[in-house]
């Protein structure tokens, strides 16, 4: 294999053979390529694109660059979900135990915050003792005995993806649909999934801001995953406002616990969680229709079974056994809490969800650099949804901050972020499309 020949062929718009892609990614995983060659390959793909067959081959090669998990002996369908990231998106925390309560095995390998979006792992690390990197044998044991486990990616799972992404991040090639597709799916294939459902966000708080962009990515992900042997579908969901009524780590974890106790009924968040549960159950054959599947998921939630499994998962991964019963013992509150008040009478008609995510980072709840330490306590709670009628002085959110100065800035930023109008807005549905 001559790397520069593979780079040249792709640069000039040619189609790479599966053997070329396999050889290039194998060399990448063995650290046999110069960083300049990796960057040139990424730029060639960004410029010339890839066929569906090439993207499948790239995804499989990256998945096989490290450990491939096996779930043989577990007599339940192996399923997972992935989100492209948003604000107040804590769906995974509730979805995994709901799906497990309905008979699925959910080995969910999640990530940290990316850019302005929050990360599932950062939220879970708010729980004292929770281990996000268990040994593979313990990971399997928890999935087998509890039904779900949410952990982080290890260095042995699709390592080629991490090495390629590090170069993409500094060569302006992150926004290549084939490379995004291979990056997301390689980790999922390495996790040994049988079925997968994808949440592709669209809106001012998402990486994809137009429906055309979101549909292009969703179709690529679905077609490549199915081509690689994993039964996959995608929902495009609205991210023009925070999905939950909280944004931050501890505050979103509290939101999760409240949800599992039945405290978030008839919200946009519940709609999304139950829709993804229904997708997972129908894909796995546990329900024949989406309507039947959603009813099963709702029963798992309302009966308390999903909450029980979440508690068992937390304990099995090192967290406290009584987190659901006594969250205040373990989830540290921010020392300063201040209300954000409506500046006038009217309707909440619009906000900049991305700016809310950046405000969480400003408070210390996210990272500007990979090595930054997160303050899990900070963020926003009690966020009113768009379409709410308010009077001047009504609380539209609460700021959780480490000190008075950062709290005052966050109050001012969030107050300026929300637009209040004279009439109720026409809002997009939370489930925009199914691919």
Automatic annotation (TrEMBL):
The keyword Glycosyltransferase applies. One of its GO terms (molecular function) is 1,4-alpha-oligoglucan phosphorylase activity. Its EC number is 2.4.2.4. GO terms for cellular component: cytosol. Residues 347-421 form the Pyrimidine nucleoside phosphorylase C-terminal domain. It comes from the Bacteria. Transmembrane segments: none annotated. PANTHER family: THYMIDINE PHOSPHORYLASE. Belongs to the thymidine/pyrimidine-nucleoside phosphorylase family. This is Thymidine phosphorylase.
């Amino acid at each position: 294999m001559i790397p520069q020949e593979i780079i040249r062929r792709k640069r000039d718009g040619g189609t790479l053979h599966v053997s070329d892609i396999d050889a290039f990614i194998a060399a990448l995983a063995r650290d046999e390529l110069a960083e300049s060659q990796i960057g040139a390959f990424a730029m060639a793909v960004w410029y010339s694109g890839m066929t569906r067959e090439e993207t499948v081959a790239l995804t499989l090669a990256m998945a096989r660059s490290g450990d491939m998990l096996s779930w043989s002996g577990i007599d339940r369908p192996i399923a997972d979900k992935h989100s492209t990231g948003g604000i107040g998106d804590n769906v995974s925390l509730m979805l995994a135990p709901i799906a497990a309560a309905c008979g699925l095995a959910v080995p969910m390998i999640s990530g940290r915050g990316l850019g302005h979006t929050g990360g599932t792992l950062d939220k879970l690390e708010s729980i004292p003792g929770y281990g996000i990197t268990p040994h593979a044998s313990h990971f399997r044991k928890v999935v087998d005995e509890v039904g779900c486990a949410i952990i982080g990616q290890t260095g042995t799972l699709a390592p080629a993806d991490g090495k390629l992404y590090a170069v993409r991040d500094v060569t302006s090639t992150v926004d290549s649909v084939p490379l995004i597709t291979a990056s997301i799916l390689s980790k999922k294939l390495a996790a040994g999934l049988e079925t997968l459902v994808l949440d592709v966000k669209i809106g001012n708080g998402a990486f994809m801001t137009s429906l055309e962009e979101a549909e292009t990515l969703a179709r690529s992900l679905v077609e490549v995953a199915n081509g690689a042997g994993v039964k996959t579908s995608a929902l495009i969901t609205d991210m023009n406002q925070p999905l939950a009524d909280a944004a931050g780590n501890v505050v979103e974890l509290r939101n999760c616990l409240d949800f599992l106790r039945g405290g978030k009924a008839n919200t946009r968040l519940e709609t999304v969680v139950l829709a993804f549960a229904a997708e997972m159950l129908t894909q796995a054959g546990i329900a024949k229709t989406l309507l039947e599947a959603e009813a099963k998921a709702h029963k798992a939630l309302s009966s308390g079974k999903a909450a029980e499994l979440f508690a068992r998962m937390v304990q099995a991964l090192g967290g406290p056994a009584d987190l659901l019963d006594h969250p205040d013992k373990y989830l540290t509150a921010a020392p300063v809490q201040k209300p954000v008040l409506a500046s006038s009478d009217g309707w909440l008609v619009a906000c900049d969800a991305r700016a809310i995510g950046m405000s969480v980072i400003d408070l210390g709840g996210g990272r500007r650099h990979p090595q930054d330490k997160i303050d899990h306590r900070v963020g926003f709670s009690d966020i009113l949804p768009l379409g709410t009628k308010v009077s001047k002085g009504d609380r539209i959110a609460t700021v959780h901050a480490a000190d008075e100065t950062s709290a005052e800035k966050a109050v001012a930023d969030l107050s300026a972020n929300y637009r209040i109008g004279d009439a109720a807005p026409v809002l997009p549905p939370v489930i925009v499309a199914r691919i």
